[in-house]
Recover the amino acids of this structure.
């Protein structure tokens, strides 16, 4: 499921979304299989406008939702299904290439064995032969040599082509991996990539600081201006966060209007400096609605920072950063709070 839907299913709206999905499936005579449930959860949560439009179209046309239809929609719209399909396709192509190389190598091996046998037979036959017989034998060996040379050239060409194809497959799989780790809306790392990066950071040598960021009053903003304009705001805030947090920092969309930044090897003090720069840049700009050019006003963000303690795991670190974020919210928003006091600079 997408990050937004997964986040919703871990919150207060989870049962409401699940009930709506079951009701919608029952109303349209769709069996509540795991795959269909995931599709219809996306549908009722409007997580993918294209999927919603496609299902609405099928409902209007009274087309039955068979297993084949469900699998088709999943492959087209569900991120995990798309990823699995691309990996399967790449794997099948790789298998074909390896089979082709295997056949070429076996053919070259057989030709070499035959050539070697021909040479051995010729050596035995040379004794006591007249000139004409030797000439005929040399001609046969010449033909055999040419055949082996051609076989080897074909094998070399095949290996060259396969190497190029494997390079393309490697690039494609790397792009698939990046796509699977990237949030489509914001362009930042997604929740899966964030979880893995934080796990690595907490087990690496050196410290790590985590920041969580939330767009203030985003729900009311969304209710006023609509989801498309809300998406515009998410992309804008994400661009500011990403620009101020280059690698090896990891910027991620944590879920909904919430973001996170991992600062490997950095202290809360350096993270605070970055977060304050992000907060000031976000709040300094008056946004305009793209479709109508209306002023949307200023957007503000609140943030919480926690520096990892010795032996602390990801869950505890996230919990303390979240607590700092809520302290910013309670303190009036548009501010950054730290889980622990930051010592004065020397």
């Amino acid at each position: 499921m997408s990050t937004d839907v997964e986040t919703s299913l871990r919150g207060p709206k989870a049962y409401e979304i699940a009930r709506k999905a079951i009701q919608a499936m029952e109303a349209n005579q769709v069996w509540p299989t795991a795959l269909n449930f995931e599709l219809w959860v996306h549908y009722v949560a409007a997580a993918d406008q294209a999927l919603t439009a496609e299902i609405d179209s099928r409902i209007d046309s009274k087309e039955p939702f068979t297993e084949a239809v469900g699998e088709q929609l999943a492959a087209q719209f569900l991120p995990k299904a798309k990823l699995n399909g691309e990996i399967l396709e790449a794997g099948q192509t790789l298998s074909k290439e390896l089979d082709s190389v295997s056949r070429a190598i076996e053919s070259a091996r057989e030709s070499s064995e035959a050539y070697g046998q021909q040479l051995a037979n010729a050596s035995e036959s040379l004794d006591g032969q007249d000139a004409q017989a030797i000439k005929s034998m040399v001609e046969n060996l010449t033909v055999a040599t040419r055949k082996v040379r051609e076989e080897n050239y074909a094998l070399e060409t095949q290996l060259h082509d396969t190497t190029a194809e494997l390079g393309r497959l490697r690039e494609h799989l790397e792009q698939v991996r990046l796509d699977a780790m990237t949030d489509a809306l914001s362009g930042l790392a997604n929740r899966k990539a964030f979880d893995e990066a934080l796990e690595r950071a907490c087990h690496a040598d050196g410290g790590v600081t985590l920041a969580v960021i939330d767009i203030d009053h985003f729900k009311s903003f969304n209710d006023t201006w609509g989801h498309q304009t809300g998406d515009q705001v998410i992309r804008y805030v994400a661009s500011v966060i990403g620009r101020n947090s280059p690698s090896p920092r990891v910027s991620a969309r944590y879920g909904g209007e919430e973001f996170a930044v991992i600062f490997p090897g950095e202290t809360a003090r350096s993270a605070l400096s970055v977060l304050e720069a992000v907060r000031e840049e976000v709040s300094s700009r008056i946004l305009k609605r793209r479709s109508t050019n209306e002023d949307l006003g200023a957007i503000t963000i609140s943030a919480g920072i926690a520096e990892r303690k010795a032996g602390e795991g990801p869950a505890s670190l996230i919990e303390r950063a979240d607590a700092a974020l809520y302290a910013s919210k309670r303190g009036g928003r548009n501010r950054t709070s730290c889980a622990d006091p930051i010592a004065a600079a020397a």
Observations:
- The chain has a mean pLDDT of 78.
